[in-house]
Automatic annotation (TrEMBL):
It comes from Comamonas flocculans. The chain crosses the membrane at residues 35-65, 71-98, 105-126, 132-149, 178-198, 232-250, 270-294, 306-333. One of its GO terms (molecular function) is branched-chain amino acid transmembrane transporter activity. It is found in: Cell membrane. InterPro entries: ABC_transp_permease (IPR001851), LivM-like (IPR043428). The lineage of its organism: Bacteria, Pseudomonadati, Pseudomonadota, Betaproteobacteria, Burkholderiales. It is a multi-pass membrane protein. Keywords: Cell membrane, Membrane, Transmembrane, Transmembrane helix. One of its GO terms (cellular component) is plasma membrane. This is Branched-chain amino acid ABC transporter permease. Its main location: membrane.
């Protein structure tokens, strides 16, 4: 009995699908460089014992950048008001602490919840327009929250903020110390757990659909993808992540000020993500490390004009490395691999 003839186009489609699935499985695996990267926070703990507060700031900013990368790098939703969710998380912890509810894990959960609710409600406004409209809406939401926090001084403390937040020991065992040692370990653990979750999400079918929406949102409904619901979901998730980052900041500093809701916070975050590279998860982390370390060093060298040198470095990066640090490194490695393959093929010929 003769076997049915399979069209060549069908075979090609199966081969392409198989190759795509294999590529996704390979990208979902943890690579050696990733293990090496996560050894760096451990080494930093021992190598820089006098800089735990700075290291905590890097970890918190990395988580904040990760939250924006989920909505901008993977879903293409640009935002200039992401500090709104960060501030909601910080003020949630501050207000809980004033009422004697200073358990760190409870604060994280409630901060994520309130920030997610704000993200869910605002997403219906943000997702209605184009990129320019989204910039204006997100900026408007953040500015409104800033003014509300400034006006209701009885609740938020206004320009004085909320000092002396009472934070209980983590799990009843680890108390936040004045040197920032426990705070740094806590911030890194929270960052790693949420990064691991985000990594699972972006490599899942949900994450792949976000990639498709970013590339061509008009075609995705034909594949059965509910575009609007996916965008609402990822925007809500990114808001929750930002809320957790704000909560960790308030818990480690035991102080909340209006600056957490400020425009500068959102603008710096966007610069950090562009600096590291969007849509790569690690781009935001690397961007946060480079940005904060450069800011710290330049402000020590030249306190008056450090912003000029930092701005110049960012302009040069955008001009000559548009994919950010991580994107440029990936392009260089890809080009090098292709040259190596060409040489091997020429040698075999």
């Amino acid at each position: 009995m003769n076997s049915p003839v399979v069209p060549q186009s069908a075979n090609d489609a199966r081969a392409a699908l198989h190759e795509t699935l294999q590529r996704q499985r390979r990208s979902a695996r943890w690579h050696a460089l990733e293990y090496l990267f996560w050894c760096l926070p451990v080494l930093a703990y021992f190598l820089f014992p006098g800089n735990y507060l700075l290291l905590s700031q890097i970890a918190i900013t990395s988580l904040f950048a990760l939250s924006l990368d989920l909505i901008f790098g993977y879903a293409g939703i640009i935002s200039l008001g992401h500090a709104a969710f960060f501030g909601v998380g910080a003020y949630t912890v501050g207000l809980l602490g004033l009422r004697g509810m200073g358990d760190p894990l409870t604060g994280l959960l409630l901060a994520a919840l309130f920030a997610a609710v704000l993200g869910f409600l605002s997403s219906f406004l943000v997702l209605r327009g184009s990129d320019l409209a989204r910039l204006m809406v997100t900026l408007g939401v953040a500015l409104m929250l800033y003014e509300l926090a400034n006006k209701f001084t009885r609740i938020t403390g206004g320009v004085d903020g909320i000092p002396g937040i009472e934070i209980k020991p983590i799990l009843g065992l680890f108390e936040f110390d004045m040197y920032g040692r426990v705070g740094y370990v806590y911030a890194v653990v929270v960052l790693f757990v949420l990064f691991w979750i985000a990594r699972r999400i972006v490599h899942s079918p949900f994450g792949q659909s976000l990639r498709g929406i970013q590339m061509n949102a008009q075609r995705m409904p034909a594949l059965g993808v509910p575009v609007h619901r996916r965008l609402v979901a990822v925007y809500t998730l990114g808001a929750a992540y930002a809320g957790v980052a704000g909560a960790v900041l308030a818990q480690t500093n035991q102080f909340v000020s209006l600056s957490v809701l400020g425009f500068e916070n959102s603008a710096d975050l966007l610069l950090i993500l562009i600096l590291g590279g969007t849509g790569r998860l690690y781009g935001g982390l690397i961007g946060a490390i480079v940005f904060i370390v450069a800011k710290h060093l330049l402000s020590d060298i030249n306190p008056q004009y450090w912003q000029f040198w930092l701005g110049l470095a960012l302009v040069l990066l955008v001009m000559f490395a548009r994919g950010g640090i991580l994107g440029t490194a990936a392009q260089w490695l890809r080009a090098r691999r292709q040259r190596t393959q060409q040489r091997s093929q020429e040698g075999a010929a």
